[in-house]
Amino acid sequence: MLETVDPRDADALASHESNSLPHGSQVDFSRLPSPAEWKPEFAVPFNQRRIGKKVLISNDFGDWLLMTMEEFADFVAGRPQAGEPLYEKLRRTNFIASEVNHELQSYRWRRKKEYLFYGPTLHAFVLTHRCNHGCQYCHSSIVGMDRYDTDMSIETAERGVDLAFQTTARGITIEFQGGEPTANWDTLKHIVEYATEKNKTAQKILSFALVTNLTIMDDEKLDFLLDRRVQICTSLDGPEDLHNQIRVFRGGNSHATLLTWLKKINQRYEDMGLDTNQYRVEALPTITRPSLSRWRDIVDQFVEVGCRAVFLRKLDPFGFAAKSVKTLGYSMDEFLEFYANAVDYIIELNRQGVQVMERHAAIMLNKILADDEPNFLDLRIPGGACIGQLGYAPDGSIYSSDEGRFVASMGDEMFRIGSVEDSYVDLMGNAATRSLVMAGLNDGHPDCVSCVYKPWCGQQVEYNYKTQGSLHGHMRDSTWCKKHKSIFDYLMHKLEAADEREIEMFRLWTTNRTLDHFIV
């Protein structure tokens, strides 16, 4: 258990910290030398947090160190001397001001913040609002399968593609969403062919992704998708009873149909000679109230169908999920308890030789252990709104992100930044875009700027807006902050207690391989 909490933070921690996860606290400054003995010139600026019996420090370079309370006291007093073990640890992790190689750290910053030097890479095309499912948590604005008036036209699609290609990014991903995007198959095919032809001149690193429930897939569609190297992603919420309970499909058994196609597609990848450790259908679960006690069943289901990763996603406050919260919702503490149980189980499976990881933890560990920036749009500074992704609605409206489009589906056009009729320069330079980018900076948040996890965390302005009524949000009361800080705490406790085998397992989770096959 934690030993002390700064009394100034006691009320906040009471409401902000999870009782289900091992968490951190402020350091007990009464155990440190008096401020008169501190030597601030010895250290680079840093933040701190108590993790168990250790003190975690981090700096804006993204370096970190766990040390004993006695070592931390020596550190703030500037006592370590060259050649001593503590001094060398601090030097290697860039906490001694006089030892920092500024040219090297500038290069490091530039490498990890590379996304700031180019425009949006993810372009999400909503091809239709039609869907044959009635998922109780659907974040989108779905309509019946006979509502063809909600389909994106080929003319609008071409204008969207033309706009996407104007991004200054070297690489772009065009992602097909819905509704069920395969319901508007002609437009999907046209976009793939039109963008592929356009790229012969543009010479961008182009890729396509499809988010589908797979229930209207057929061999002809699959042949096209495989031939054009479209990556396929689907939703799998767990075993059959759990999946079908939430993902309602009146046309048959959603779970059985999904597994049939998932196995068939994975077999096709194997027949094509692709490494099946890398090339598999990506499946994602959304955690609802019935899922909370089923963490073992959910993980086992993913392992059974051959998935190497599970991305444990909490319900978001958008679309149907906002209306079904009374039946499907839960507290953040309940989710964090579920998350800890599930990841503990995943770690135990790895000890038994089963290769599976939790995607959210892997993203965070990439930042912590691999000194990498995976450009996950929800955990970067500034956030992904507008400058990381754009959402293209069927009528040609353009939104800050998927989440911005979800807000629009609830009748609020707050995150509409333009349309396919606008120029790229206008979209990237208008007042709305500038405001959303500025709101996505952690440096302007009082709690974020002093948080030990600041180098690795991020903002989602749409979430702030829907949950707190402000683009900037109030992190001390934010469930967004609580979720990420608690998971960071969980991982830091794991790293602090890990043996060499476990550290190697976590490092394997950070291994990133480029899926070259999906690059057109």
Furnish the topology, listing elements before pairings.
Blueprint: H1 10-16, E1 24-25, E2 47-51, E3 54-58, E4 64-68, H2 69-76, H3 85-92, H4 102-112, E5 122-126, H5 154-164, E6 171-177, H6 185-202, E7 205-211, H7 219-227, E8 230-235, H8 240-246, H9 254-271, E9 282-284, E10 286-287, H10 295-304, E11 309-310, E12 313-314, H11 319-323, H12 325-328, H13 332-351, E13 357-358, H14 359-368, E14 389-392, E15 397-399, H15 402-409, E16 416-419, H16 424-429, H17 431-439, H18 446-449, H19 461-468, H20 479-497, H21 500-509
Parallel strand pairs: 5-6, 5-14, 6-7, 7-8, 8-9, 10-12, 11-13
Antiparallel strand pairs: 1-2, 2-3, 3-4, 14-15, 15-16
Q: Can you walk through the features of this model?
A:
The protein is α/β, with parallel strands linked by helices. Among the domains are: 7-112, no CATH class; 118-227 and 395-439, Aldolase class I (TIM Barrel), CATH 3.20.20.70. Helices cover 40% and strands 12% of the residues. It has 21 helices and 16 strands. It has helices at 10-16, 69-76, 85-92, 102-112, 154-164, 185-202, 219-227, 240-246, 254-271, 295-304, 319-323, 325-328, 332-351, 359-368, 402-409, 424-429, 431-439, 446-449, 461-468, 479-497, 500-509, and strands at residues 24-25, 47-51, 54-58, 64-68, 122-126, 171-177, 205-211, 230-235, 282-284, 286-287, 309-310, 313-314, 357-358, 389-392, 397-399, 416-419. The strands form 4 sheets. It has an 8-stranded mixed sheet with strand order 9-8-7-6-5-14-15-16, sandwiched between helices. Strands 1-2-3-4 form a 4-stranded antiparallel sheet. It has a two-stranded parallel ribbon with strand order 10-12. Strand 3 (54-58) and strand 4 (64-68) form a beta hairpin. Helix 5 (154-164) packs parallel to helix 6 (185-202).
